[in-house]
Amino acid sequence: MTASIQIHRSLPQQYLLRLGDTCLILGQRLGEWCGHAPVLEEDIALTNMALDLIGQARALLTHAGRAQGFDEDQLAFLRDERDYLNPTLVELPNGPGRPGDFALTVQRNLMVATLLKLLWQKLADSSDAELAAIAGKAIKEARYHQQHAADWVVRLGDGTEESHRRSQDALNALWRYTPELFEADAVDDAAVASGLGPRWADVRADWAAEVGEVLAEAGLTIPAESPFRSSGKRGVHTEHMGYILAEMQQLQRAFPGGAW
Amino acid sequence: MNEAVVADTTRARKAWAVLATVLDPEVPALSLRDLGIVREVVDGGETLEVVLTPTYSGCPATEVISQSVIDAIDGAGLGPVRITMQRAPAWTTDWISDDGRRKLRDYGIAPPGPVMPGQGVPIRLVGRRAAVAVACPRCGSDQTEQLSAYGSTACKSLYRCVACREPFEHFKPI
Predict the structure, then answer these.
(1) Fewer Cβ atoms within 10 A, N terminus or C terminus of chain A?
(2) Do A189 and A196 form a contact (C-beta atoms < 8 A)?
(3) How many domains does chain B have?
(4) What is the mean pLDDT of residues B140-164?
């Protein structure tokens, strides 16, 4: 029972897992702030957003596993690293040290919340009724996440000398992981063909416009394009993924079926 | 709200009345009916089906709410009951009843305004002063400011009244 599950990875399942794992892994990262955020209000905000993301992940993983008879917990806790299909951006640590850097966290939240908001808008018309229902709910939450992140990106970017410098450092560190979000492949093509959902690439122009507007307001400079391409959506992760999974999975691997 | 679609039996009507007494565990000023999360009550002959909709995807109260519905319906002798969670159409704070809004205000929570159709458009860069004035539930002043976008639960944010200096919670419109 402690063994990993083997998932089939059909194209539509991969499409759902990319969405579900994006929510799951960012939710886990935001949860790391619990008890450590710079001020109490932000501790509450980050953990509430983590809660929304975990809730969305639960619905998406439940849906993704149904055809093969796996439940949300099996997919969350018993997959091997290569079967997680989140983009690399969300698995990166919250910044140097523990609990990390608040500037980096809000920069990443802006990038991911903007992406998810735009995807949910299109997914609300999915040919898959369950996915459309999940999207209809999640879009309301993603709007708040985006708003919250945008407010902080502007406040810090247009703040003190130190907050500006750390915001620009965070943007420089994260930006090269954003092209991966919009790389289309057979998974996206199949989703478009079946009406399951859009290519993530289809929201790139809107994403760049919305994120760009906030970064301009914040007085931050968008880094130059980099030839580097991350590959988390294909299951090839950074060294950080093993650590995050070890923390997430330890309990279920040590005490199979454990519940409270 | 959805009462028009109720399979209109005495048992279903009684169940609706019972559900008006089941309180939300996180905002105990409101019943589940005030909150607008009871979508349907269907008398299936043997089993009574209560269809609920979640407020937020990750709302941790969902399981508690389901159990309190089962306990209340069973307690009223109307069981056996089955809970069905239905996500679509997504719950909106517009479904909170007028009575529920009054109860929220009396409880010290500023009720949500109408959900703005403009929520789908690009980001509003707002400062700490909200784009739409939220009236203080204590003194009624609209000279209020947001302290935090999130509050003690996912559905609320924190405000303070500049006029009476009291902090209060605001039920976010979604």
Answers:
(1) C
(2) no
(3) 2
(4) 90
Best CA proximity match to B39, nearest among B72, B71, B69, B84: B84
Burial of A195 (0-12, 13-18, 19+ CB in 10 A): exposed
Last residue in a domain, options B91, B124, B146? B91
Residue B123's pLDDT is: 54
**Out of A45, A53, A132, whose CB is closest to B88?**
A132
Parts of chain A with a pLDDT under 50: none
Both structure tokens of A196: 């399951």
How much is the pLDDT for B47?
Answer: 93
Q: Kindly state the average pLDDT of the residues B128-156.
A: 83
- Are A21 and A84 contacting, i.e. CB atoms less than 8 angstroms apart? yes
Flag whether A40 is in a domain. yes
Specify the DSSP class assigned to residue B139: T
In chain B the first and final C-alpha atoms are separated, in Å, by 17
Q: Provide the pLDDT confidence category of residue B117 given band limits of 50, 70 and 90.
A: low
How many Å lie between the alpha carbon of B168 and the closest alpha carbon of chain A? 14
Q: What is the DSSP string of A204-237?
A: HHHHHHHHHHHHHHTT--PPPP-S----GGGT--
Q: Does residue B160 share a domain with residue B116?
A: yes
Tens digit of each residue's pLDDT (9 = 90 or more) over A151-189: 999 999 999 999 999 999 999 999 999 999 999 999 999
Last residue of a domain, one of B40, B67, B91: B91
Q: Which domain holds residue B26?
A: 3-91
Q: Order across the sheet with B38-43: list the strands.
A: B38-43, B48-52, B81-85
Instruction: Verify that B85 and B59 share a domain, yes or no.
Output: yes
Question: Considering only CA atoms, which of A46, A232, A239, A146 is closest in space to residue B119?
Answer: A146
